[in-house]
Amino acid sequence: MVKNMRCEGIPLTHNHKSNYIFIKCAVSLLLIGLAFRLLFFHPNGFPLFSSSYSFSSPSISEDDFVVSSTFMAPQSSKPNDSSVSVDFHNTQNQASQNVAAKCDIFSGEWIPNPLGPAYTNESCPEIEAHQNCMKNGRPDSGYLYWRWKPKDCELHRFDAKKFLDLMRDKSWAFIGDSISRNHVQSLLCILAQVELPVEVYHDKEYRSKRWNFPSHNFTLSVIWTPFLIHAAIFEDINGVSSSDIQLHLDKLDETWTDQCKSFDYTVFAGGKWFLKTAIYYENETIQGCHYCPGKNLTELGFEHAYRKALQLIFNFMTSPKQKGFVIFRTTTPDHFEGGEWFSGGTCNRTVPFKDGEVDLRNVDRVMRDIELEEFKKAEKVGLENGVVLKLLDTTHLSLLRPDAHPGPYRTFQPFAKDKNAKIQNDCLHWCLPGPIDYWNDLIMEMLVNG
Ligand SMILES: *[C@@H]1O[C@H](CO)[C@@H](O)[C@H](O)[C@H]1NC(C)=O
Ligand SMILES: *[C@@H]1O[C@H](CO)[C@@H](O)[C@H](O)[C@H]1NC(C)=O
Ligand SMILES: *[C@@H]1O[C@H](CO)[C@@H](O)[C@H](O)[C@H]1NC(C)=O
Ligand SMILES: *[C@@H]1O[C@H](CO)[C@@H](O)[C@H](O)[C@H]1NC(C)=O
Ligand SMILES: *[C@@H]1O[C@H](CO)[C@@H](O)[C@H](O)[C@H]1NC(C)=O
Ligand SMILES: *[C@@H]1O[C@H](CO)[C@@H](O)[C@H](O)[C@H]1NC(C)=O
């Protein structure tokens, strides 16, 4: 059972290092075994690492981040209150065509910020234990004192009051995996400085939640749907898999599509889970798989599934029946070094990378390329159908922040008993406060500051 789980977690790349990875897998499962179960999974039952993959491909070309100007952040009009939101959308829609691309807010660098973060572990009640690095005893705090500086402009700090005023009677949803939950918690922490959120719903596993900000009648949801398409996931409460994931490439996950109409704004993202072993279905018929040795199925590659899934999602989101404002976030790179998450990888850097100092890994580049291609197509369709579709291109700015993951401090005082304890590191999610807060500044910029 453990073996099954371990190997499930280690999908193959399209470049097929199968034997190597299989051996790595077998060895690592022997070494980690039960410890993995205890350390790696949230007590509530969801894998902490929504992604789990093993790639050692180092070499990347220099133009990983050449992003065409089509993806530059749009400038927006400034509605003077939320009642004009429909016009706001339309205006923005038209505006996005002739934006002279004054400033690409996604291209820039992290610069020192003596002011530090907008909130702390004391002021925010919503930080998930695994990302509460301060509380968990992370000794250094330098990672808190950087801000994102776009090359050609300033990024305004998120104005929580302005946001809540603008979003009166509105609803937002973040749809995706545990990185989306990480993101929503950051937003909650920022907004909590103006009004405390009231949790009004959570699912059994606390993976999907909804909050209300009563005095603004603003609703914020996070919906856990790691693939966004219909998937049968056979993971028990400890995240242990008893069978391969069955992924239906022609069906969306109704958990979110059913609710979608009720949201004025959606931010969706995905990706990492597609790297796992899965059997691919279409028309209820097995078409192939990704990393399923011994099954005598055609290896279709995660790229096949991810592209199909994105096409399905974008088709749905840009159909004329959809309302609202849709933001798609690009893939998030991790920063495991000296190993992977399951083999002692760590992330102990304490300062950001400078531009050009690090390359995107091959798998992230492949994923991002698919995202950009499908987004570009969908953006056109959206324009025709009056749906505002925006790209939140956080990949590059996230890549530059190896210093801001929980690392070993995903658990409380991990070295309290033993200074040399071997601790499973989290080099994928982000400490709160942390650089993920700037994702919200970017969203704010996309919405109102133009
Ligand atoms: C604010 O909105 C009102 C309508 O609600 C409009 O008449 C007015 O021109 C707007 N002001 C600005 C500065 O956009
Ligand atoms: C916040 O973090 C500090 C350490 O930086 C810790 O002493 C304190 O107990 C934490 N407070 C909460 C409420 O988590
Ligand atoms: C709150 O907002 C919803 C729309 O999201 C609206 O239907 C409802 O009437 C609002 N409630 C109040 C008290 O204004
Ligand atoms: C799916 O099945 C339907 C009828 O069962 C058929 O008409 C359709 O061509 C099939 N599509 C694919 C992609 O196999
Ligand atoms: C694998 O599948 C092919 C076609 O579906 C079949 O011809 C072949 O016999 C299978 N091989 C094994 C070892 O089952
Ligand atoms: C930091 O991580 C690297 C790579 O995993 C490791 O070789 C090094 O010993 C670590 N340094 C410290 C101070 O933990």
TrEMBL record:
This is PC-Esterase. It comes from the Eukaryota. It comes from Dillenia turbinata. GO terms for molecular function: O-acetyltransferase activity. The keyword Transmembrane applies. Belongs to the PC-esterase family. TBL subfamily. Residues 155-446 form the Trichome birefringence-like C-terminal domain. Residues 102-154 form the Trichome birefringence-like N-terminal domain. The chain crosses the membrane at residues 21-40. It is found in: Membrane. The keyword Plastid does not apply. It holds the Pfam family PC-Esterase. GO terms for cellular component: Golgi apparatus; membrane. It is a single-pass membrane protein. Keywords: Membrane, Signal-anchor, Transmembrane, Transmembrane helix.
